[in-house]
Structure formats: C-alpha cells, structure tokens
Amino acid sequence: MSNIDNARRKHDWALIVGGVLVFIMGIMVMAWPGASMVSIAIMAGAILIVAGVTDFISYSQVSGTPGAGWILASGICDVLLGMLFVIYPVATAAMLPWLAGVFVICYSIFAIVAAIGMRGVFRSWGWLLATGIVGILCGIMFMVMPASFVVFLGIFLLMRGVTMVVEGIVLPASVAEAIEGI
Predict the structure, then answer these.
(1) CB-based contact 174:128 (threshold 8 Å)
(2) Sign of CA dihedral 131, 137, 138, 140
(3) How far is CA 173 from CA 55, 102, 122, in A?
(4) This model's pTM is above 0.85
(5) What are 46-102's pLDDT values in tens digits?
(6) Torsions phi, psi for 98 (to 5 deg)
(7) Helix residue ranges per DSSP H, the chain
(8) Is residue 121 within 8 Å of residue 65, measured between CB atoms?
C-alpha cells in the first residue's frame, strides 16, 4: 500500500478533537448566556489556544501545499487572542465583543482567501468559504450589537468547530490527491 493510499485513509485527529472542543464551547456559550463575560473570556481563550495549537499541528502536516500558510496564520491569531483572553480576563471581558469582532472578521477573511486558494485541492472548500462568510457577518454583529454577543459568538464557535472537524476528515485525503497529481 502506498503512502498516498495511507494518507487518504488517515484523519487529522488533532484537528477533529480541537473542532469538537470548539463546537462544545459554542453550545456552552449559547446554553448559558447569563454566564459572566469574564468566564466566557477565560473559556474562549483556552479553547482558542487549543484551536491554534491544532492549526500548528495541521500546518506541519500540510506545509508546502497551496493555502497552508493560511492555516498557520489562523493558528497564530487563535493563540495570540486566546492568550490575551486568559491573561487579562477582566479587561478582555469589557472589550470582548469588539475584540472578538475584529478577530472573527480577520479569521473569516483568512478562511475566505484560503477557501478560494484551495478550490482545486481541498474538496470541502465550500464549507470553509461559508464559514468565512458567516464569520464576517458574526464579527460585524459583535461590534454593532454587543448585547447579542453571546449568541453570535456561539454561532461562530459552532461553525468553526464543524469546519475543523470537516478539515480533519477531508484534508489528509485532499493533500494526498494533490501530491499524487504533481
């Protein structure tokens, strides 16, 4: 059995587990909207750090392929914002809707550009594109309607979690097919 056939059968479990954690965070945020913003800042920070680390792991596995740099950029954004949330939870909580809005818009632009760049390589690029579009809308709503922040954060985390799981399932086979086509 060739290495390409092995890659087609593999899944990126780090990305899948990270996606499930992000999805669970989305459910938790939406289920308990009355939780303090400080708690949300700390929980979101921890999950963003985990998501960033899984992006770094994924990048190490696909570096050199089209769009791989966007995975690294997303990981850097996730870790930096996550650290900010965890280190300064009280200050972050007061500014959370606007900070998260800027981050989500930036992440979403990365996702849209990556989706367009990976059209020929990544089979589920359309899901990544949809996540980017929904993310931009959520980011704008964070800033325009900060009182509804928790709802839009939950929607974004649900979409991000599902995207990570889909990438973890599909990405290794997509990379194998791209390598085979070279």
Answers:
(1) no
(2) positive
(3) 17, 33, 9
(4) no
(5) 988 999 999 999 888 888 888 788 889 989 999 998 998 899 888 877 787 888 889
(6) -80, -40
(7) 3-9, 13-31, 37-62, 68-87, 89-117, 125-144, 149-181
(8) yes
Look at the block and give the residue holding tokens 């280190």.
87
* φ and ψ at residue 95, rounded to 5 degrees: -105, 5
- Chain centre to alpha carbon of residue 179: 25
Q: Give the Cα separation of 76 and 72 in Å (integer).
A: 6
SS3 178: helix
34: its two tokens: 């009355």
How far lies 28's CA from each of 31, 37, 39, 157, 167, in Å?
5, 13, 11, 10, 23
Chain mean position to CA 155 = 12
